[in-house]
Amino acid sequence: MSATATRLLHNYVGGAWAPASAGDALDVTNPATGEVLARVPLSNAADLDAAVRAARAALPVWRDVSVIERARTLFGLRAGLERRKEDLARSVTTEMGKTIVDARAEVARTIEMVEAACAIPTTMQGRILEDVSRNVDCETVRQPVGVCAAIVPFNFPAMVPFWFLPFAIACGNTFILKPSEQVPLTQQIAFEIIEELGLPAGVVNLVNGGREIVEGMLDHEGIDAISFVGSAPVARLVYERAAKTGKRVQALGGAKNHMVIMPDAVMDKTVSGIIASAFGAAGQRCMAGSVVITVGKAHDRLLPDLVEATRALALGDGTEDGVDVGPVVSCEARDRIRDWIDRGVAAGATPAVDGREAGDGLAPGGAFVGPTILDGVTPDMDIAQEEVFGPVLAIVRAGSLDEAVEIINASRFGNGTSIFTENGAAVRRFRHDVQAGMIGVNIGVAAPVAFFPFTGWKDSFLGDLHAHGTDAVEFFTRKKTVTSRWFSDGQGHGSYFVES
Ligand code: NAD
Q1: Considering the entire predicted model, what is its pTM?
Q2: What is the CATH number of domain 11-253+460-482?
Q3: Membrane-spanning residues where (predicted)?
């Protein structure tokens, strides 16, 4: 299909779908085939401004809707997502590449976010203490922050926007989403579902675009809070620039996640855990384990089975049955990942499984890189330190758990890390000493469920309050503390301690 015949996506602003005012647009492609699926507009400052005005106008209306009604709206959103979950999953696979099984799991997690936000009449409660002085009470209530905006990456087209959207509106905020310009289609479906909820116009808005919209959001005085998820350099830029205009910011960045394998690990289960973590979604998860650290004899116990299981993985179009690993998001990403493997080999690593040419017999326009294992990697190599964001697993040897922890703690990232062992003392030591926000014990992808915060450290996260769980309510509300006394019943003569 020619690009000109392809659908040009619309924005959703003030309760209506409308074309962006800018003329520029990019192709959205299916990375398994190279087919152009749609064109995404690169909206401009005027488009963003219209969304901010709509969101600001809706704010007083929406924050006064009762919290129970807001929760009921989320029940409706949950039902709508459930009804269209297969459409959402197919869209994720078609625009991003992950297998349909993985995409369904992503959509299930998306729905779980809405379920967690449905608890808002409980989770948004404040605190009260009577008699802080005689007849004086003190209470803290939570109120919405205002207009909240989210900027999201390509790797979870359904879920990552929903780390923020349901919690933000549950708390009485209005919301603007800028999807990744590489994968804007799944949120078109999500917003069709949102449209059916009959929310007041402007409560939830969708503005497609790239860098210009992001920078506009960071500078716009009509936006009160920014949630960002993406690569580490952009996370830093977002954090610094949004703070300059006094916004509340949470910026989740890149990662380099380690998996420590102890000699006593249950190896068959460990192999499955490593494979799912390193090669699921073709390694394009911020929680993907991309470095295995074998401790002592674990290396020789692990490697033959790991190599065999990796070689058995089927590479192909994620919509097809039996495919284990889909394409990476784009041909640019494919070339960058192949280049990383070249660099690792040039630095002295041995390709135990080499996926550089594994996709050559597949669709000519496809962005395939086969699962790759680089053995003999040392901690100083770039391939051990930098985020590749592809199906490339580095194997590093350590003599002891202490040495493994040292390697992990030397990383500038601190998103997730896992240990595989049956030794409770080693686990205790690991979870206590390791510098990362999310820890897995015999779990390769230790991404917390929606009811807990998603918590990176170091360069993997800039800010204070993390995504979803209890942190979401903290992030999307401002606290107001009221100290009060009453005179009319004759009891109000108590005094503040400052006067007593
Ligand atoms: P990216 O940083 O390229 O893009 C993220 C968003 O920022 C997109 O919406 C994009 O339009 C915008 N953007 C890109 N460059 C920009 C610039 N120079 N100025 C302003 N805005 C810009 O990230 P990506 O490639 O879409 O996603 C992959 C990255 O996201 C990986 O580094 C991955 O680890 C990270 N990620 C992190 C988490 C987490 O929870 N920490 C979760 C998912 C993905």
Answers
A1: 0.96
A2: 3.40.605.10
A3: none
